[in-house]
Amino acid sequence: MEKICLVTGAKKGIGLAVSRKLLNAGYNVIMADCEDITFENDKVAVFTGDITKEKEMFELKDFIVKTYGRLDCLVCNAGIIPTPCGIDDITDENIDKTIDVNLKGTFRCLRIFGNLIKETSKQGSIVNLTSVDGIIGEPFAVIYSATKAGIISLTKSFARKLGDKVRLNAVAPGLIDTPLTESLGNDPSWTTDFSIIKRVGKPNEIADAVEFLLSDKATFITGHVLTVDGGFNLK
What we know:
globular, alpha/beta, seven-stranded parallel sheet
């Protein structure tokens, strides 16, 4: 039976790479984003919705139930890092915005769609996208780091709540070449100098890790945070 997977923040970057990877692996994919998505594939459904708005997430749930009758997998990828975001210059507006999307939005998706997976799938799986910044802390992205640390905690809490019916893990990327980081250039030395593998990561490398954790190759893994950062957190 083909698995049905919802990917949030699916329009570009890591979310788009994950969607393509899962399609190639035989999944049916629901690509959700707060911006309109154009993606022509008979195994793809697209949905425009904001994870900070509970009403829209329940509309997405209804859409999934009516279209597929079940949900097997979830990738909570949607996230932002509005600037300025350092300890000394972050604004109250950016604090609220970052928490609303990254932490509260992820919590909302886990609660709504985690329960849907538990109710409708024979064996479900969820992967959250956190960040190496949520592990080591980052003074130049202080609230972003705090929300990503919160996602690690959500991963462990929901893994315990959902039990053996739904596995829940997280992937913690380092610096990845996405539209979110393109202003840094192709090889920002300030981060590659601190990595063991001295380059910026690619979205497809994160997608590989997500696919593994969703798959039947990871059936005895839950509540785990897989760091994919080129060794950044070790230096």
